[in-house]
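Changelog entry: the ABC-three component systems C-terminal domain-containing protein record was regenerated in this release. Current contents:
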Amino acid sequence: MLLFDNDNTLKQHGIEYQKLIALELCLNASPNQQIWIECRGDVANENTSYEIKHHHNEHRLISNSEDAWKTIKNYTENYSATASFDQLVLHTTSSVPVDSIFFEWNKLSAKEKSEKLLSHLPSNTIKLHHDKITAFSKISLNEILKKFSIISEQPKLIQKWVLLKSHSTFTIVPEKYRDIAIQQLHGYITSLSVDNPNEWKIIINDFHRDLRHSLSKFTSERLPFIYTHESELDAESLKINFNFIKKMKDINLKEAELQSAISDYLRAQKTQVKIISATPTSIENLNIYDTDIHKTLKSEKSREAYELTAEEIGTVKAEHLSRKIFFTSTSKPHDQIMGFSDTQKYYRDGRIHHIVEEENFEWAFSKDEL
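Regenerated structure tokens:
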């Protein structure tokens, strides 16, 4: 079967992989440190800047590999920034073949590395990078190459996730809940990109406080709710013409309510997938939660139906009562999912919109409901 290229998915996996590397650095960090993502290299701490290269398929770091040449070229173009680091690391899932100039790279001196690079006959794919490197100051290039190392054959995305579950930090968490624990910390890291988009930074003291709070939840009988941040939503999904949005427009709800509803719906969908993936046995409790929401919606509508006659269907009064049902249903205190703590309001509201999307409920009145 021929499939469409999905570069966006692969790029997203690259970002998710970076966040896992950042999470690992956070777990191993000492107090008072900081970790940066996408602003001092792909991932960095005070001493080391990492360029992260993730490949789903088998990939080799050959002599003409753009991964390596582009990384070195970027270091020359940002020399003043790289000068502040003790180490510059290319972290890659690729293997390095014996005939590559990058084979056993870390055993070479800066002079030997420089000679290999400058004497190499480049392919067309790397010629631009090669030309910029050869034109760069030889003294400064040597300073970069003294610090530059390659860590190859690193675990891929899923393997890295599995390895993180074995980290000593998670020994207090029952093994079957470690996926949820990592998802919580992964979500915490994601949220920081929204808090300050100009500098995606993790302050380790804050991370440790959140870590203690997050993991303490797993020592109780109730599982922590798996949060989905708005930053995790796909921009294209926000543009879909959902059925539940049409139903909201039918009762003249404003644009602010429509946008909030789309966000809540998509976040709830993502959270449900995360919960089921981490704890498959929770499906029954999630279904019970949806059933209870549906019953509440029908009860609210049945109560307001007493204020309406058949002749008033489609009138301003009927529209007003439908909006009243909407706002009552989405503003009242929300219940907790059985077996979970700290269920968020967006999940309840998102499941309301899901029920409407599946055409099991709508806000507008019909004559058979009176």
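The first strand starts at residue 34 and ends at 37.
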